[in-house]
Amino acid sequence: LNLTGAAASTWTIGTGNALTLTSQNFRVDSAGNITVAAGQGIDTISAGELRLGNNTATTVSIGSTSATTLNLGAGGALTRAINIGTGTGADTINIGTGGTATDDINLGGFSSTTVDIIGTLRSGDGGTTNFLQITSGGNLSFVGTANTIDKVSGTLNINTTNNQAITTGTGLLTHGGNITFSGTSARTITGP
Known about the structure:
This protein is mainly beta. The protein is built from no helices and seven strands. It has strands spanning 12-15, 19-22, 26-28, 34-36, 121-124, 131-134, 140-143. It has a four-stranded antiparallel β-sheet, with no helix packed on it. The protein has a three-stranded antiparallel β-sheet with strand order 5-6-7, with no helix packed on it. It is elongated and about 95 Å long. The chain starts with 11 loop residues before the first strand and ends in a 49-residue tail after the last strand. The model has no long low-confidence stretch (mean pLDDT 84).
């Protein structure tokens, strides 16, 4: 066993119940915990994959109790693929579900950003009682007391680009203002 280096970085090896390595910037305690100097880390010697907890770990915890900022692919002008839960099993992915304070979760950084969701999207109380639901087929429905479409200002436009037919059900349609028909063609309202 060869130990070399300046005096400030000399390794000290203690033999108790386990091997302990202590240096100025790298330490392994008798419990097996590894600590390094602030601003330093673990990397590969050459370009390739860095694996953490790949073989026997059943839970991998990062910054559980002390870290207030977690950076994942946060630096550099790179085009990245960030994969979360992309295996073949059924994943449960929780983001901001602690429930102790109001979260601010942002997706995308440009107006041209596209967010694709395959499956059913439920927005409101998380699909419990009152929520808006968009199915995988693109159908929109309101569940519970979620029943209002309210534009804060301006005109609410429905199907004004492709001008397809709008079909309603047999329920009561209540209108509180004037009904105006645009264009020069004759319009007809029919009833039973």
